[in-house]
Amino acid sequence: MQHNIDVLISQAEIEKRIEELATEIKRDFNGESFTLVGILKGSVMFMVDLAKKLDCDIELDFMDISSYGAGKESSGVIQFLKDLEQPITGKNVLIVEDIVDTGRTLSHLIKHLKNQEPNILKVCTLLDKPERRVVEGIKIDYTGFVIPDKFVIGYGLDYDQKYRNLPYIGVVID
Ligand code: IMP
Ligand code: MG
Questions:
Q1: Which ligand 1 atom lies nearest to the CA of residue 129?
Q2: What's the pTM value of the predicted model, to 2 decimals?
């Protein structure tokens, strides 16, 4: 399977933006410790690079939720495949997402995590596709890039599980 890919966001742009986000996040948490909750598998590259720029007291945990079937369209059905390993009750939490599309995944996730009564719950996403939003009223605290309604791949994001390892964000040209 080979596709033609256009670069939408370069590796250098991603690196620069992550430094800016890390500075903002560090300032906002103001010396308090917090847990990065990464959503597998899409957020892994972003989470790792962001964590390395956060020279403060953080922990890492992961959840796996699935909303996408094979291909480009969301099934609309959310499945929790892996829960957190550490309880977050009373803790400060930063959800780290690859992309917010319809918003279904994030709204389910926020509901799920709020049930555990964290102290602070914030959301950081590398990409936001606001034109695709179905769930209204989702608050994103930190956004890397707002992108148009295009299916993107790379830097963690997949097309049928492929292309996650591209070091940039690209668009598949049909
Ligand atoms: P939502 O529930 O529709 O917001 O979808 C969120 C999830 O769908 C993301 O965490 C991604 O895993 C996946 N997704 C949404 N848009 C794209 C895309 O353009 N490329 C690859 N994966 C995507
Ligand atoms: Mg995802």
A1: 16
A2: 0.94
